[in-house]
Amino acid sequence: MQTGDCPLSANGGVPAKGNIMTREEFAQFLGKLREINNNGGDIDAFVKEHEHRNVYFYNDGCIKKILASEQNLMLTTDLVNAALGLIGSDRIMNPKLVNPFVPGELGYHDINPDIGLVNDRGKNVPRDRISIEVQHNMETFYRDRLVLYVARLTSNMVKSGNAYQLENLNVVSFQFFDAFKVSPNYRHTVQLKNQEQQVYFDKQTVTLIEVEKFLKRAKDFADDTSRLAQWLRAIDTLNREADFSEFAKDPVFRLLQNEVKLSNFSSRYLMTVDMSDFDRAVAKYEEKTEIAKKMRDANKPIEEIIEFTGLSEKTIREL
I need a labelling partner for 274 at 20 to 30 A (CA). Which of 3, 32, 249, 281 fits? Predict the structure, then answer.
């Protein structure tokens, strides 16, 4: 099966055991959970039936519970260092969560970052402030919103009447669209520069991780052994519920493998996960299937349809 596949089973659209837990599939799972709850059914039993499965890591509610938990600070720190390309003494080593996950609480989707960290580097050294977010869709004002993120985080660093000494701000955005389509890179750092590309202010950096580009062009990045590439491959392997043995020797990825288990997420918590993700994911899947039908009816090669839509051959043939 391909990563973008969204198989339906006979039990009302719920993913069958052993299938891939993609974003669309996880959204269907959440939709079925709400349907059972609305009909007065046993949501605990439904979740337990699927407890051997993995959640979809990049879901807002799931990534917040995993990475914003104090017990998983090792995971979050390792991912941040990987995303920022920090090594040696430059690494984040003394992190504290700004908005830690509270059991039973999801938080709400607004201008605040999904996950926030601060890192002290010692006396007279500016503190690091890191914001992590996930963006699935290229919305009309996405860039505006990202710049507003940066502006708000920056303005909150200085209290009225104090000296204008700012902290090192890093905003990390994991994106499922290409910010720079013609670029061969999947990781981009954005800073204030002049026309000679000289950095004017190095305390403010936006790092864009184009997840979809990395996964779709896996062959182009096959020789990339960076820590960030390892992370993206490990997360993708867990989302696909594929063989994880190549990552299992790494203590960080072993912890990650355990934390994405659906058994760690109560039915009550899953009920609080943003329902709009379900609507967007289902709409995206339906759009893919319509495109696949048109390409198939136009006698396009099956390989081309798979490449273009991300659907599996089985799903395309059954449309």
Answer: 3
